[in-house]
Amino acid sequence: MTTNTIFLLLLSLVIAGGLSYFQYYFKAKSKSKMTLFLALLRFLAIFGLFVLLINPVLTKNALEVTKTPLALVVDNSSSITALKSEKKVEELYKLLASNPALQEKFEIQSYQFDTDLKISDKFDFKGKQTNLDQVARNLKSINKNSVYPTVIITDGNQTTGNDYVYRFDPANKVYPLVVGDTTTFFDLKINQLNVNKYAFHKNKFPVEVFLQYSGGKSVTADFSIAQGNSVLVKEKVSFSASKKTATLNLLLPADKVGLQIFKASISSNLKEKNNYNNVKNFAVEIIDQKSTIAIVSAINHPDIAALKRSIESNAQRKVILVKPNEINQLQEASILILYQPTAVFKPIFDNTKLAGTNTLIITGTNTDFNFLNQQQNSLVFKMSGQREDYLSEFQSQFNLFAVDNIGFENFPPLQNLFGTITTNGNVSVLLSSKIRNVSTNAPLLAFAENQGKRTAFLLGENSWKWRLQSHIDQQSFSKYDIFTDKIIQFLASATTKKSLVVTHESFYNSGEAIIINAQYFNKNYEFDEKARLTITVTNVETKQAKNYDLLKGNNSFSANLDGLQAGKYNFTIKELNSNTSYSSHFEILDFDIEKQFVNPDVSKLEQLALQTNGKAFFQDQADDLIKTLIENKEYKSIEKNISTKTPIIDWVWLLILIAALLTTEWFVRKYNGLL
């Protein structure tokens, strides 16, 4: 308690005693045996009231020590097992985590990582991918505004994610502890193989192969690509101490329609430590047709180039650019994209009405909306001459086809003329518009179907900024291009509606996410959220079957089939209420990327240490690492004085006591005739 509080309590004692004395002794005309008792009751009641007003508090000071975090991150991927370093990794972790000096100086945080970062002090080394980029991102969010060291026990061989060297916070030192045998072994490796998923029948498709050599001698290797028992390509490749890599650009014939499996391999007469990375299987789906999409525009705009690149990211699509007066070039086009149509598009609209061609209409500040009102009746435009920016809002109830929200709310606004846009008839809205976060309830991206003809509307220009923003957010154009492809697929599809629509790949690599999506529609072709979908997956060779339930998402059902072994599989999806079913097949290619390595990536880990002003250590230098961490004076514990204040009295009970004292005093005085 403070001095002032003590003074007030003493003063309260004096005042309470004075008032009691004045009431029962000084002022009283007569005194009885009960006077002292009544004076005591009055004294305690008045003193209690003063204590209640003063509310004395006890202050307790405690010293709290906050230690610097030490992130101890362990590689839990299967490449550690492939390099036969799992026991060494566990020994190094225990050595660091149990060191008394480190425990005294740091708050040790234990993590494991493969595809993601997790809090753990147990490791099984079964991770199918290695993503150090994810480690960097997660640690930044976990230890915000802290200066802390990070120790990573790893081989440094990353198989997915961005280059991790520049992803860690340069203000926080990283100390890689390199595990694995750094001795250079003779090794031939197919480092990377690039090929499109699709090729066209009777054409030739390119294959780009990157080969890598480890060793000090000159050697000649045989590289080949085979399909079944037939060798399609065979080449000699030379390596030496000064020539460690080679790149081959090959053309393979697309003679058969359907999914074709190929095997690339490299070999020599010398024995290797790791033969697993000498072989890489890949697959290409040979298709016998290619859809042509025509973009018709009277003006030049960045949207057109962005649309062309996005659509042609699917090898089954070909885009041609056409002026409105070049109507003869539209004969081969199965879909028309009409960019900012005006009156000069009149022959194009007349032709599409006769041919029933599906169209995507994109409007903007150069669009003639009066003309557009005359040519279609799905949307009604009442526009002014003023320009306006429209943000997008994703409509999760959209059910024409499965589409994910790829961050539309974060995309830059599209520009269009200001006005009102209303729907007329059977129109489904995927994106609605907002003006400065105020919803307009007007469509921004909508789809209409009328007498078998499908039309899509994108109501604004500058969608090229959407594709660029998606790349910034995802470090890839992939998600945006898939979104564009789904729009084109909707327009390219036959108008006959199916109650069960399934989306899947024809082949997957081992370790990849294997996800199959499905949509079930009721008799009104509305997405049925109450559908019960199951999938039966059967291995073609072993005949072993597994059953899974499909889980409901926003506007589709999905099954995650991760964990299946390499091989060919047939599957059937069934809707249990209606017995509607869909059957198809896929293949999982035997490819374990974590078994591709014979040495740790020392140079990459040393770059990481240099970038963060840390230092890389090898597995036999753990004691040196501990010494470095202990002697580093940057990391100091922070002492804080924690002051806690606790009230001495409980005001509720004190109030009850005061009331009891005053009540007792009243009854005693009443009983003795003193009132």
UniProtKB/TrEMBL annotation:
<feature type="transmembrane region" description="Helical">
    <location>
        <begin position="651"/>
        <end position="668"/>
    </location>
</feature>
<keyword id="KW-1133">Transmembrane helix</keyword>
<protein>
    <recommendedName>
        <fullName>VWA domain-containing protein</fullName>
    </recommendedName>
</protein>
<feature type="transmembrane region" description="Helical">
    <location>
        <begin position="6"/>
        <end position="24"/>
    </location>
</feature>
<keyword id="KW-0472">Membrane</keyword>
<keyword id="KW-0812">Transmembrane</keyword>
<feature type="transmembrane region" description="Helical">
    <location>
        <begin position="36"/>
        <end position="58"/>
    </location>
</feature>
